[in-house]
Amino acid sequence: MNARHNCLSISVEHRQLKEALLCLVGTTLLHRVVPKFNYDTNNLKNYSLGSIGYEEVTLESIDLTYARVNSPKLIDVVDQEVTKFVDSIKQLQSITSGELSYGSPFGTRQGTVTSIDDYPPLLTTKLTLEFFKKRRRPWPLSEDIFPWEVWSIALNVVKAERQEDFQRLREDVGEKLSEQVLKICQTVNQPRMYLPPVPQYSDLGLIFDCNFPDVQPYLFRLEYDSGKAPEFGLTDNFKKFFKESMHQF
Amino acid sequence: MADSAEKDPEYTLFCQYARNFSTRVIHSIVQARMGETVSHACVVTPNPRTWFSVEVDEIGETSAYLKSHVKQYPPFVKSLNIDFILYLPSGEVLPLETWSIAMGPPDKDDLGSYMQNQTYFALSQLLRSAIAASRVTPAYRYYVKDQSADNYVITYRVYSGEPDLTLLGQGSKSITLGEVNTKFGTIMLNLNYRTNMELNPIPYDNVYSQSVSCVNPAGEAHIMRRHSTMPVMGTRQDSCHKLSPTSPGVPQFSTSPGSQEFPFGSQESQGKLGRSPSSSVSSTTSAQTALKSSKSSPQASSSFPQRNSRRARLRNNSFPFASLLYDSQYSDDERLPKVDEDADLGNIGGLRHRSSPAGGNTKLRTSPSAPGFIDEVTENMSIKESKSSASLASSKRSIENVIEEKDETPEAETEVESEATIKSEKPEEAKDPGSEDDMESSDDSYVKVYSYSPSEDLGEDLTEFVKEVRIAPTDLGSFTNAQTSALKDQLNVFKERAVEFDTFIARLKDSDDVC
Predict the structure, then answer these.
(1) pTM of the model
(2) Are the beta carbons of A47 and B253 separated by less than 8 Å?
């Protein structure tokens, strides 16, 4: 079975990266969780559902509020995964620590910045949110994993030198992020969209993640290339600047 | 087809789904514009009062507004619209958004049989999308958090019919958040929002005065004047309740070998969905009753419990006829006709059509609540005061401006909710001789009030008043006349105390002089 691919793209300032990802992942998961199943003890074929609670989250670095599933454990899991991804971008850490100054002729913005698109991307990266289901195989083989929906979040990361530029970017990124949220809403509600059927009680763990006490999201994982430097691309400007900086030292 | 569909129990359930979906969408997006952070915990145990497995608060004022102004929900109307309008202190408005819950034709290629489980789940998804989308629109980002009586407030209105999207200005965007296909029709949720936020506000009357003359031939409710909008007030915690519909039991789902094709159950479980064995008959009956009565008198929705109007009034900090306090804001021609003081209050509650001066075929439509409210909010009141007065205004359903319209379409539905300001068209109908007829003045400014048995048509305030009057004791101790002899003794006591009081005042003056 082929997985359904959905693409999201956003340009953010490096200080906004984590919150932007949390917003997109949280909004997607809001549509990909089901309430906790309550099976009839007499007949495990029958079940009833609890209900999903949501909460508003106001972002600090972006002028945006989004809604996410109010499950503390799910929030922690997502936060940990996104934090790992953000931390794995080593070059980003180098930039923020000042080792590589952005104040080069290649990246300096002159004049008033009105849009994040005016910035050349410092680096590009991608985070993948994948929903999958498992299929048991005979012992000693492990379970097969079949993705059925993949959300690719393409990120262009920039850096604003001046604080006033960053303040303008808050609103601009908020607007663009809101468009992505609306895109997610439109995508998940397309008619005749495939969703894994509810299995028997014994196979519930093959479709849903039952580790959460209050909700059951579809099995999901966040992926990026963490074996080495994460999958990212350095723009030509950045490479040129890096070389010239090295020559100076 | 229509007749056979109405008899189909699946269609009845579909109508319930559509109605409850509409109300929950409205509640959730109105709450999103109140400016207060919303947080609901996930609930593990099934709750029969929660529809579509999503925790949604019930806002009292919104429920009251819907109850009084929305007579029909999808699929009985083609489109139910929610407008959000920015109201400025100067009295000008800026339409921000229009949400539409629309009914489309059934998708013949989609489902051969109606899948309740799929529909239920799909509506749950769409409701979550409404919750998510309502927080990211420009109206939310720019205006929701900074509402105040000094800056602006966001008002909303709910109506059916075709929305006027030109009010959203150039560059407005329209998106379809999603649609749910069934054999009975397609439920669509559309979002239209303004992108150009340059404040070129429009005087309210210029924007909505046109809609006054645009009468919907189908007779569906639509906006009359500015009074029909409701402010999106910040919620007090005690006035925000979890939605408590009398849904037919805890939805039961089933897994079976045949369910592999369908998420959340199989064809076998369709009959069980949403119905516990004991309530299946009653739920059908109540749904049918709701459907039948939707076109007649305004009746309590089967989705909402019958609430004590007194409790609602207390919660809203309102009292009957509270809106009369605001009548002084209006000019004479906007005021309600005078009520004669000698009118027979024991038979209060008459409702009749007022004959137009020209004697034409006049249909009466009442404009909804909050006349004058917005003026008060912007001129005199903080956002907190506006919240309490909004509750007062919302309880004023029964006393509202009556707008006469000459409706050329005979089948247009008449909506009459004015309580005591209408003259009878049929003078031959029962009146006590020598009472109301004699009170009629030549300029027709007096009011005839007739007894009216179905008190549920009178509105909550008037109904409550009628009940209280009927059950009131005949002897009221606080109003008994005092004996004259006792009166004299009381006067003597007052005179004695007056001397003491004067003495005390004199002492105070002396002490002041010394200081």
Answers:
(1) 0.62
(2) yes
Q: Is A88 on the interface with B (CB under 8 A)?
A: no
**Among A31, A52, A66, whose Cβ lies nearest the Cβ of B53?**
A52
Among A183, A189, A195, which would you mutate to test the B interface (most chain B Cβ atoms within 10 Å of its Cβ)?
A: A189
**Per-residue pLDDT tens digits for A218-236:** 999 999 864 333 344 444 4
Chain A 207-246, residues with CB within 8 Å of chain B CB atoms: 213-215
| CA B405 to mean position of chain CA atoms | 22
Cβ–Cβ below 8 Å for A55 and B40: yes
Task: Output the average pLDDT for chain B.
Answer: 65
What secondary structure letter does DSSP report for B149? T
State the nearest Cα–Cα gap between A93 and chain B, in angstroms. Answer: 30
Residue B488 makes CB contacts below 8 A (sequence gap 6+) with: none
Select the highest-mean-pLDDT range: A26-35, A107-116, B88-97, B327-336: A26-35
Residues across chain A? 249
Domain residue extents for chain A: 4-247
Encode A187-219: b = buried (16+ Cβ within 10 Å), e = exposed: bbbeeeeebbbbbebeebebbbbeebebbbbbb
Maximum Cα–Cα distance for chain B, whole Å? 101
**Among the listed residues B70, B66, B81, B71, the one whose alpha carbon sits nearest the alpha carbon of residue B161:** B81
CB B446 within 8 A of CB B437: no
The alpha-helical segments, DSSP class H, found in A16-162 are: 17-30, 72-88, 90-97
More confident residue, A40 or B62: B62
CB atoms inside a 10 Å sphere around CB B192: 21
User: Could you tell me which of B409, B427, B377 has the C-alpha nearest to residue B152?
Assistant: B377
Query: Looking at the complex, does the CB of residue A62 fall below 8 Å from at least one CB of chain B?
Result: no
Interface of B with A in 104-133 (CB under 8 A): 107, 110, 122, 125-126, 128-129, 131-133
Closest CA to B193 of B137, B127, B140, B126: B137
Give the CATH class of B1-206. alpha beta
pLDDT tens by residue, B303-360 = 333 334 444 443 444 455 555 554 555 545 544 454 444 444 444 333 333 333 344 4
Three-state SS at A112: coil
Domain residue extents for chain B: 1-206
Are residues B46 and A50, on separate chains, in Cβ contact within 8 Å? yes
- Interface check for B40 against chain A (CB to CB < 8 A): the answer is yes
Instruction: Please provide residue B197's backbone torsions phi and psi, each rounded to the nearest 5 degrees.
Output: -95, 15
Three-state DSSP state, A65: strand
CB-based burial of residue B508 (10 Å sphere; 0-12 exposed, 13-18 middle, 19+ buried)?
exposed
Alpha helix ranges (H) inside B181-279: 204-213
